[in-house]
Amino acid sequence: xxxxxxxxxxxxxxxxxxxxxxxxxxxxxxxxxxxxxxxxxxxxxxxxxxxxxxxxxxxxxxxxxxxxxxxxxxxxxxxxxxxxxxxxxxxxxxxxxxxxxxxxxxxxxxxxxxxxxxxxxxxxxxxxxxxxxxxxxxxxxxxxxxxxxxxxxxxxxxxxxxxxxxxxxxxxxxxxxxxxxxxxxxxxxxxxxxxxxxxxxxxxxxxxxxxxxxxxxxxxxxxxxxxxxx
Length: 230
What we know:
Residues 61-156 form the Formyl transferase N-terminal domain. 30% of the residues lie in helices and 18% in strands. The chain is of the alpha/beta class. The chain has one domain: Formyl transferase, N-terminal domain (Rossmann fold). Strand 4, helix 3 and strand 5 form a beta-alpha-beta unit. Helix 1 (9-21) runs parallel beside helix 2 and helix 1 packs parallel to helix 5.
């Protein structure tokens, strides 16, 4: 398959290497120019440039710049919204990895809320991107147990990032064989929590964004409950 990767940091680089290891072609990459400290190139960008794969700065991915013949877009720690026109340009659409048991903890700080709410288990979900942020059909999902003393960094680094790679590998192998798994999320169980002091998700090719957009609705009950549980 011809795969375009939108992501960043170590997880983006790990997904890049996974896609190539499985024998797929990376036709392009969208990633920040620099790392979080602004001192060197983002790791995903560096991988692409080392292999002379076209790189596009994060926030600039549009349908008209997606390489022709792209089969699949993969979100790997991406904070950019992949719009409908862009998704439809890829033969299979777009998948992403979210570090929670969707539909629980939609939003950019899923791991922080998992710990703040003292959830006994955490998990990861590979889902099909749609107009609803983190709300698309599930392609694969699994869980991990939380242990006392778990931190945001340790939970991500030791459990959820490796889980994401395993789930993405399973989905990519399925798709390469023509197997498409899609399970709608249970909206009755959905929660959306606000970010911990970060900017809203950037949605570059959304023409109209109204206050009633279901993908950006904050679950106020969950937001109020978190400080009490912390």
